[in-house]
Amino acid sequence: MRDAAPPPPPRALFVDARLICPASGLDEVGALLVDDGKIAAVGRDAQGQVDGAEIVSCRGQILAPGLIDVGAFVGEPGAEHRETIATASEAAAAGGVTTIVTRPDTTPSVDAPEIVDYLKRRARDTASVNVHPMAALTKGLAGKEMTEIGLLLEAGAVAFSDGPRTIASARVMRRAMTYARDFDALVCCHVEDADLTAGGAMNEGEFASRLGLPGRPKAAEALILERDIRLAALTGARYHASLITCAESVAIIAKAKADGLPVTCGASIAHLTLNENDVGEYRTFFKLSPPLRHEDDRLALVQALAEGVIDIVVSAHDPQDVETKRRPFAEAEDGAIGLETMLAAGLRLVHSGEVPLARLLAAMSTRPAALLGLPGGSLKVGAPADLVVIDPDAPWVLDAASLRSKSKNTPFDGARLSGRATRTVVAGRTVHAYGRPSG
To answer: Residue 60 domain-assigned?
Structure first.
């Protein structure tokens, strides 16, 4: 006997909201009507449509498209001790993220249609937000033999990547990009030469020397980025640099765009708001891959985000357990969690006047949706009712123990933040409201 179908999402009227839709340029005070999991009316057209609707007062707060996070590690299959789809989705909901695009570097890696199908079924059964898998570009993430791109797309993969690994062979990369072009598939790449960074623990430079730590040079990033962009020009494939971290990479991306190449890039919220000095006295929660860079590089990233050179902002969510982080800095695993803090940390850039609010929201919602061909990222009538209500000025202090992620390796522990998601809605259903658990 099959389980009964879930009841339809409630009809709801969100009132007293500052409506911000980067896709249309909307920024006005008004109402928004949700019916049958979709946006039914916006602004003046929604006013007064109270028949049978639950009234949700936003109390003057921002109502925007739900955030879309590209490239989060969720742990399943194979690393459930670090994170699960269920716990990752709880963290996402608490942070205003309504869609997660997952990394393929699981065990086994996401290199076959049946693994994509498994992830989709697990998400359907356990997730409170939308979950879309990114598939591996090469089998076993080994960088030698490309995967069946067409079959993986049919199974539901939304992009292709080898996760935190760079494909060393230009021949393999060219072949994979050629096939991806034929399917109009997005190729997402980690841009860092593994040979140049081998053994490195943090950004190469004076600060690393003072700490006595081996460095990872920025040239390793620029080298692979230049190569990949030349291959994108050669093949015509849609190419996305998953994370850029330095001024040199900003210049390379800007030139590629000026040349009309189908090239985009992302930056993590950590690289936009932190720098190498935050490592301090060997604080391993600040050990990331790529590493945090010099303050000049951080400022270059922020300017590139404001100008639209950087397309999307991501959490770079990479949970690690206590055993892998409570080690000497050079031996600790890279990575930090970020699903629950991406929005709040990003609002630091808005409050400082460095990035307009609409631009930040576009990089966290509208642009990722367009890049991956996903529904959402908009407040247009007919769009999925994936929404976030944001109090941009709410002061709070982050306590890592209160985070929903299974792992607690956040670089923002104890940070004073201003602004947070107060309600998250997925397909018309509230999955998180501040003051009560998500789900």
So the answer is: no
Distance between CA atoms of residues 24 and 377, nearest Å: 10
Structure tokens at 30: 């008004």
Spatial contact of 291 and 202, defined as CB atoms under 8 Å apart: yes
Give the model confidence (pLDDT) of 371-400 as tens digits. Answer: 999 999 999 999 999 999 999 999 999 999
- Domain-located, residue 51: no
Q: How far is CA 284 from CA 212, 281, 292, 386, in A?
A: 15, 9, 12, 35
**CA 162 to CA 110: how far, in whole Å?**
9
**Cα gap 358→352, rounded to integer Å:** 14
273-279 long-range contacts (CB < 8 A, ≥24 apart) are: 273/298, 273/345, 273/346, 273/348, 273/349, 274/298, 274/411, 276/202, 276/203, 276/205, 276/207, 276/208, 277/207, 278/411, 279/202, 279/207, 279/211, 279/329
Q: The whole model's pTM is what? A: 0.96
Do the domain assignments include residue 168?
Answer: yes
The two structure tokens encoding residue 37: 């999991």
Whether 364 maps to a domain, the answer reads yes
Please classify residue 358 by burial: count the beta carbons closer than 10 Å to its beta carbon, then call 0-12 exposed, 13-18 middle and 19+ buried.
Answer: middle
Q: How many CB atoms lie within 10 A of CB 425?
A: 27
Specify the pairing of strand 416-426 against strand 67-72: unpaired
Which residue is associated with the tokens 């989709």?
Answer: 120
Model pLDDT for residues 298-320, shown as the tens digit of each residue = 999 999 999 999 999 999 999 99
Which residues constitute the domain of residue 273? 66-372
Record the tokens describing residue 41, joined without a space: 């009316």
- Beta carbons within 10 angstroms of residue 372's beta carbon: 21
Give the closest residue to 247 by CA, choosing from 203, 189, 187. Answer: 203
Contacts by 198-202 with C-beta closer than 8 Å and gap 24+? 200/291, 201/287, 201/291, 201/329, 201/330, 202/276, 202/279, 202/287, 202/291, 202/292, 202/329
**Both tokens of residue 209?**
């020397």
> What is the rounded distance in angstroms from the CA atom of residue 382 to the CA atom of residue 217?
47
